[in-house]
Amino acid sequence: MARNAVQFQKGMSLSAFLERYGTEEQCHAALVAWRWPEGFVCPRCGGRAHSFCAPRRLFQCSACQRQTSVRAGTVFQASKLPLRTWFLAMVLLAQSKNDIAALELMRQLGVNYDTAWLLKQKLLGAMLAHNAERPLSGLIQVDDAYLGGQATRQPGDKRGRGAPNKFPFLAAVATRDGRPRAIHLRPVPGFTKAAIEDYAARNLAAGSAVVSDGLSGFNGFAEAGFAHDPIKTGSGKRPSEPALTWVNTVLGNIKAAITGTCRAVRHHHAGRYLAGFEWRFNHRSNLAEILPRLARTALGQHPTPLRSFLTAEVAG
Ligand SMILES: [Zn+2]
């Protein structure tokens, strides 16, 4: 049987991981190389000349004397965890097929639950910010979806206005040559025309063309200036239309994964959980490079204030 080249990638084995990133020194050297590929740059003055204080792992700028660590100003800041714990968390989170529960992270990392939970939220938060800067382009299939509700749309569902106890999100899949290329899983306030128009204006590249079912709110794509092909499907049924195959496949997988790892996702956290699925899907094609890619994602984002993660009693 032909095997899917993406699914059967090797990724990084535990022994390869330990060989490359088993010590704090190795992790520090890798992070420095990923943050400053051309060599140290002072975050205050841009100077390159520096000295390095090895015991405290601090860089001191020769021009302005500013002392900086490789963690400063990134997601890794203000954490007492060793970098090797962060690295293991990153590889577990990035390489997991769908999601890794905080409880599982706790066991694998040897930290307490709150620490594992917060670490996961910080990495998901970095993925969320990274995703937000990446518009979709080309031919795009979209569908409406909900977290916390039933998986299939029922007759009489309050589509467009938001049903109670559900968290609405838009699923979009950009395809090329009939294959999925990149996805968006974005929370929306509802499936009104205004909400869709707002999503489209912010998140789709000019010239993109959208295929959807006939939900009236999807007319917001045309309002935002995009070519839009609404496919009429039977009322109350999930479309089996070939033009929407990928968005339905991706959605099905994500719903199965979310129910598999999270007993409940609170509204407050849903955007970050979705961001994790989106990031993993969009980086799935090169598992061997997934750790440096997640590290660069985390290095590229500012530290998240703790208060944005409070109300942390979610299971996931
Ligand atoms: Zn400086």
From TrEMBL:
Pfam families per UniProt: DDE_Tnp_IS1595 (PF12762), Zn_ribbon_IS1595 (PF12760)
Domain of life: Bacteria
InterPro entries assigned: Tnp_ISXO2-like, Transposase_Zn_ribbon
Domain (ISXO2-like transposase) ranges: 135-282
TM annotation in the entry: none
Protein's name in the database: IS1595 family transposase
Organism: Roseicella frigidaeris
